[in-house]
Amino acid sequence: MMNFINLILSGLATGAIYALVAIGFTLLWQTSQTINFAQGEFVMVPAFFVLAALNLGMPLPIALLVGLALSMLVLGVLFKNLLVDPMLRHGVLPLAICTMALSIFLKETVKEVYSAEASPFPSFLPEGNLIVFGATISIQSVSIFVFAICAVLALQAFLARTSTGRQMQATAQNPYVAKLLGVPVKRMIMYTFLINAALVALASFLISPVYLAKFSAGETLGLAAFIAAIVGGFNQIRGAIVGGLLLGIVDNLAAAYISTQYRGAVPLFLLIAVILFRPQGLMGRAEERTV
Amino acid sequence: MTRTLMEVQGIRKKFGGITAVDGVSFEVREGEILGIIGPNGCGKSTLFNCILGQLPPTEGKVMLDGDDVTGLRPSAMNRRGVSRTFQLLQVFPQLSVRENLVLAGQEHKGTMFTRLFGPRDAGLTPDANQMIEFFRLGHLAEEKAGGLSYGQQKLLDAAMAFMAGPRMVLLDEPAGGVNLTMLGHLEERLRAMNTERGATFVVIEHNMDFVMRLCTRVVVLAEGKKIAEGTPAEVRANQAVIDAYLGH
Amino acid sequence: MSRSVLLKTFGVLIVGALIFLPLTLNRYGIYIMSLWAIMTIAAMGLNLTLGYAGQVSLAQGAFVGLGAYTVAIMMSAGFGFWLPLLIAIVITFAVGWLLGYPALRVQHHYLAFVTLAFSTLVFLVFRNEEWLTKGIYGIMGFKRPSAFGVSFQKPIEFYYFTLGALALASAFMAWLVRSPWGRAFVALRENPVRALSLGVDTRRYTLMAFAIGSAMGGFSGALYAPLVEFVDPTPFTLALSLNLLMMVIVGGSGFFFGPFLGAAIGVLLPEWLRFAHGWYLTIYALFVMILLIKTPTGILGIIENMIAARKTRAASAARAAASAGLDKV
Predict the structure, then answer these.
(1) What b/e readout covers A124-137, taking b as 16+ CB neighbours within 10 angstroms?
(2) What's the structural domain count of chain C?
(3) What pTM value is reported for the model?
(4) A206, B239, C110, C261 - which has most CB atoms within 10 Å?
(5) Do B56 and A289 count as a contact with CB atoms less than 8 A apart?
(6) Cβ neighbours of B120 in C, within 8 Å
(7) Which of A225, A238, A224, A230 is nearest to A275 (CA)?
(8) For the segment A125-150, what is each residue's pLDDT rounded down to a tens digit?
(9) Are strands B200-204 and B168-172 parallel, antiparallel or unpaired?
(10) Domain range for residue B20?
């Protein structure tokens, strides 16, 4: 029983990270019809920015900031201007396919430039253990959860309480109407890309100490992002949060109670089941007829 | 007394807080050309989409020949003999004119599987040729539809609506953007379809002159509601109609 | 020289090269050409799903794997080649149909995710179910086929076998694309709303395209097994599905010969870029992105645009010349 609680709690921690990645993924889809198949690689890359900065001798806090800034530049501004904008005029699916090529590009570039081996990543979170409900849990897990949830709450507050945030919400719900209402839609969309870059960077810094920085880390993380977003409900940020947390817990439980060989299958079944029986996700509204 | 082909009863369509169509009822009699007019934004296109199954109506019924066809999907409506043209041109640009016409009729011939193993044109070349001749598109038969002029595409669009031998054709702004000569040609061909083949039409239009010349009966909408119904002459003299149009 | 004569000559040259070139190549070169033929078949199937019916499938690699394993397992159990081949096609068609039936009820992009999940699941099954697939140890010991007394054992003989299979698959595709179904597929891709209003049952056609496309993947896998004479899970990862997708895109999705070109690039590029060692995938991915940004219709799309541009220029010039003549009156 204690083990079970342990699993739930650490599942919430990983789930919170999945939520961060899924939120960015959902935001990009909502505001600019971008399905970013490279989202997993987006979570993999910032860790390597930081490692490069560390190699240049910067102290950890500075390196983290540099990593964040570079992420926002490369995965935010450059991604939008060089790839998304030119591709959007061709359509949603061509853009999605382009991001598939991007994921290969990022993965292979990191592998060649840095290394094919996994590299340790420093943690900025405290060590040690806590006793919660009689179960032992690492402070790191708790910190990850707290950090991620704070980021999510900050984002929610920003979106609901600031005028820019509300403008972004309007853009996400209906870009055409938003434009008519005078919202600077292009700028709002750029903000979403920047926010996504920041979220994936944070996720990267939180998860790399645990799972190490490796060029192939994007595969599982990307899949987790898609599953979390869709299970939660592709149209809502709340959905991404619920989906992420649920996925984290399910994943952890699967690892413990199902053979290691098939633990990866459980989230996949979850995804298939949701798409087949409740495509709008757990939190989503049913779409208008797709015709 | 001619037969009623289609009856629209109390159609209401709401989009969130906005009511685009507010309880519209009318009937379409066999063999007539019914016009639906009204100022911009009065709900004509939304009404059309509700009848044709593109949008499910919030309330109301559509009866076709006594059967309730409310909310049936467009492909099902098409198979019941109701076809339509589109306001924003929707021909298939990569296919030739003849191919467009064959496509428009092929889904009514046999089943999906018999079609696969049957002839490549599903036996529709004679019908397509007939249509090409009727609409005087002969010199363009092999051209890719994307290369036609706007007016020519409109003619093709109308021709496609007839390929399946429909009982009723709904024309969505057929006069839009067409030059006067082509418009006269289109009007004349549509009238010929009506007299020669007894085809029933419903036409949504802005162009009052076009409607008044072509249609046998007219329904006027304003702000989602029906405000008048009658022959072109009656409607033209109706004060409510004049107000609605002048008020914009 | 008129365009159609030019095209026909080009076609004859290509076919000639396909028949005679391998005679000059070594064992590895012949293997590459056989691989190209097999990948083209899989890419053709994906082209049907993506290029004609407009659906993104990330499972084509899994279907290739299903075909390969079906043949390997059955041949190891003592069957010849032909029955396993047939079963492989039937199974992959059925699985494609079953997968697509519910998945295509929802929005387009969801199929990409469902096929992504399916791909990963299938790989797990290949790797874990040792009693059936021998897991990571793989299946070997099955022979290459023979027919009507002709054996296809030797590399060059097997190459001609795959070439024949490719010809068969191409003939099938050509017939399908020119039938009323082909017309419906084009309508589906160009304007699904209008297609629906004309009575085209878009859902059924899309499902058939997906199922047939998957079956072609299975067919290609059934040929892959005797080519490499060893079947294990490693080739059948998501990477293969992505690779096939890139082949279709680069060649030109929706074009009949797109897969041929795309597969050639996909199979040959690792060879040409050998000097770049690990960078070849990076270069390839970059190339794909740039190509897509320029045009989503691939290399054949670019060629088609160039030809169309030339035609328009010629037409404008002709019109200008004609009106210049009128001024003189």
Answers:
(1) ebeeeeeeeeebeb
(2) 1
(3) 0.85
(4) A206
(5) yes
(6) 178-180
(7) A230
(8) 777 777 766 667 778 888 888 888 88
(9) parallel
(10) 4-246
